[in-house]
Amino acid sequence: MKTDKEIAKATANAFSWDNAVPEENLFVKVEYGQIYLSGEVDWFYQKEAAKNAVENLLSVKNLINTIDVKHKEDSNKTTEKITKTLERLANIDSKNINISMDGNIVTLNGSVRTISEKDEIQKVAYFTQGVKEVINELQVNYHPIFFK
């Protein structure tokens, strides 16, 4: 069983080995084997990278990730970025998708053709700068194709 001090050191090492983790903006506290992550990042993937870097360290009992994603732009610009990215993707039909924002939380509504398309759209939203959370309410309208 590792001590809290050893877990904290292992956390710092894990962060330093992962270039997706902006360690200078993060704070770590370890208490009774529980890691508390806090601070601010620019991108959601950085928050996830910090969590992924430490969640399976030896002797970690729990992880509380309260890292915040900064929201730098207004909602219209962020929504526009997501829409333009979706329009560039050949495998996504973006005309039936509605995107709305409240702060840095994106809500996706509308219909898609497949579950993989639904997942891809969610990833695009998450990987847009300033997005903290995505509420994916997209409906899959499956139309079976019958071959004769």
What does this structure look like?
The protein has 148 residues and is α/β, with parallel strands linked by helices. The protein has helices spanning 4-17, 44-54, 75-88, 115-126; strands spanning 26-31, 34-41, 62-65, 68-69, 97-102, 105-112, 133-136, 139-140. Strands 1, 2, 3 and 4 form a four-stranded mixed beta sheet that branches. Strands 5, 6, 7 and 8 form a four-stranded mixed beta sheet that branches. Helix 2 (44-54) links the parallel strand 2 and strand 3 (62-65). The termini are far apart. The model has no long low-confidence stretch (mean pLDDT 89).
Task: Please describe the structure with a list of short key phrases separated by commas or semicolons.
single chain, 148 residues, alpha/beta, 4-stranded mixed beta sheet, elongated
Detail the topology: elements first, then pairings.
Elements: H1 4-17, E1 26-31, E2 34-41, H2 44-54, E3 62-65, E4 68-69, H3 75-88, E5 97-102, E6 105-112, H4 115-126, E7 133-136, E8 139-140
Parallel strand pairs: 2-3, 2-4, 6-7, 6-8
Antiparallel strand pairs: 1-2, 5-6
Produce a short descriptive summary.
The protein has 4 helices and 8 strands; from the N terminus they run αββαββαββαββ.
Uncertain parts: none
Output the radius of gyration: 19 Å
**What overall geometry do the principal axes of the alpha carbons give?**
elongated
Structural category: alpha/beta
Helix proportion range: 25-40%
Q: How many strands in all?
A: 8
**Gap between N and C termini, in Å?**
64 Å
Helix-strand sequence:
HEEHEEHEEHEE
